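Record format v2
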Amino acid sequence: MITINEHYLKLQASYLFSDIAKRVAAFQQANPDKEVIKLGIGDVTRSLPKACIEAFHAAVDEMANDASFRGYGPEQGYDFLRKAIAENDFQSRGADIAADEIFVSDGAKCDTGNIQELFSQDITIAIPDPVYPVYLDTNVMAGRTDMFENGRYKGIVYLDSTKENNFVPDLPKEPVDLIYLCFPNNPTGSTITKEGLKVWVDYARENKALILFDAAYEAFIQDEELPKSIYEIEGAKEVAIEFRSFSKSAGFTGTRCAFTVVPKECVAYDRNGKSHSIHSLWNRRHCTKFNGVSYPVQRAAAAVYSEEGNAQAKELVDYYMRNAALVRKEMTALGYDIVGGVNSPYIWIDGKQDSWAFFDMLLNKAGVVCTPGAGFGSCGNGYIRISAFNSYENVEKAMKRIKEALS
Ligand code: PLP
């Protein structure tokens, strides 16, 4: 008899986006003439940078000739891309990361979800609340939690991100082994300073813990003082893995290219306390279960590091940040407490009421769709997330409608 992995039965069905879709459909049926503006989903709306498209096309043409055709590539990614990443994203900022510490993949979602496979079943895991749900659900699937009770999985150490701690969680009170951090944060849009991040790196070093640092939104950081990479913090190479993506920085959500940085110094321990290289383990896992990102996609991603590509990707980010500034300005003027939108594309708004009630009010009175904060964890209740990924015209229209609806 074939039996299932019963840990999957503990998973809470993710009703967030299907509930949103249902409510939007009902609204549209009742108001067929009213255009709905979606500021909910974290997907980009603008096309790829021209330099990426040109490199993409040229690489497809290479595939059309026997002489330049490429079959299976290196699982870890082509050298041209790994080198460009190491030099431009890390070495140029004083972070000593080598090309062979970069693992190119088809998404930070897969990598942040898969990495937990390397660690033992009985580790204690710390996960922020609110949170990008992948970190939590993949540990539930792997059997590292008990059942879901009163809005939380037993067996997980939740790191509350609240107004009181400026949406940067405090160190856990109990010892933990694996820590997920995400800055700039999805969903709160909050950022962490170098001093704040050093506290976590020091904790990990003192406790032989490991930090999984999700920097999928680093391209949105405007403040030069903020760390873009955890490796800008001294000592982080031994205790941190970093996840990056071209999805939001260069519009690759549908094209798919990302990477994970696993420094060679980074270690985890066996039950006798002997240290082992996580780089070797991840390399083994990656080569066993992954066959590389397609050659044209890697060429398109590498074009982000050319002079034109860099300027064009920056222009994309600037475009969304102009939207974010408008949302911040208008929602603040309406009297809401907000964070985010300064170094991130997400704006986290305290609605001072139930998340779904606020969502319904914005939908029914203004025809604007946001994301209820409660969908990201219990600390998200009372908040909504507005995303800057849309056209400036739509954001302007949405803000005008919200202003009219609330005044
Ligand atoms: N990490 C965070 C925090 C995200 O919000 C997202 C996507 O929304 C991802 C990772 C996934 O990125 P990718 O498109 O590279 O899979």
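The mean pLDDT is 96.
The chain is about 35% helix and 15% strand.
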